[in-house]
Amino acid sequence: MLTTRLKDDNWALHQIAERQDTPGSLIKGTMPKDGYLAMLAQQYLVNNAFDQALQGILPEHQAIAELILDEQLLTPYIAEDLAYFGVDPTSAQPLPGTQRFIDHIHAHKDRPLHLLGLHYVRLGACNGNSFVARVVRKAYALESPTQGTRYLDPFGPTQRKKWMAFKSGLDAMELSQDQQDEVFAGTRAAYVLAINLDLPEYQSDEQLLAKHKKTLDQKAFIEGHSVHVQPELEG
Ligand code: HEM
Questions:
Q1: What is the pLDDT of residues 180-235, one digit of tens each?
Q2: Distances (CA, A) of 7 to 1, 2, 68, 162, 195
Q3: Which protein residues are within 6 Å of ligand 1, measured from CB?
């Protein structure tokens, strides 16, 4: 199944991604609030470019449009979070990693299946981000789950159900091997670009995998990412 491949053949990049400074310090609760707001502002720029690219292709691509629901366009959630904190979403200038991500989106705006792969990763990341949101709420004393963490946790208690529905829909699409490879390439690019958001100099997937080779641990990754066995992330 395509989604099994997207998960199993990207586990190493996922492990590298969650170790980066921004996701790593958010899940540990050590990110200062200013850093959280700066992350949201940069994500606003990336997601806004991405949602615009999607809106450019969805009217022409019925099967993808049936899969990517309006509620999965993440820009409005980030705008809501920034508004909650009184930050103007248009005030931020793109950092180098953000600009790289935006350039990649623009360069692939006519490649619907690549965009679908990019979308898979930002939507899938909501699984982990829903745990990050709990830590963030505690760290910045946010009282309501809907204030300030909508981007991290847009679907609340329906997260798992909605993610499973998205994956089933993707697996049900009739895609040739080449088309599946194109979705896969999009997921790979999304991981690499997300990792690079925190890096001053761009590093390719080969460079990242070589750099982290000695510390990658598939067994620990699988154990830590079964949603049934991670009570340390609960609460
Ligand atoms: C603190 C950081 C993170 C934690 C704790 C975390 C944790 C998780 C967990 C628990 C899942 C659910 C696994 C399952 O479906 O059984 C998940 C899924 C996923 N996460 Fe993360 N994650 C983190 C960061 C990221 C980042 C930075 C990205 C992307 C750049 C990402 C992309 C994904 C994707 C695409 C999925 C869907 C399933 C898959 O294809 O592996 N995650 N994550």
A1: 999 999 999 999 999 999 898 999 999 999 999 999 999 889 888 865 545 445 43
A2: 10, 9, 19, 17, 16
A3: 6-7, 14, 17-18, 23, 27, 121, 124-125, 127-128, 131-132, 191, 194, 225-227
pTM: 0.94
Q: Which atom of ligand 1 is closest in space to residue 194's alpha carbon?
A: 30
pLDDT at residue 229, as a whole number: 45
CATH of 2-227, one of 3.40.309.10, 1.20.910.10, 1.10.3720.10, 1.10.3080.10: 1.20.910.10
User: Residues 5, 184: contact at Cβ < 8 Å?
Assistant: yes
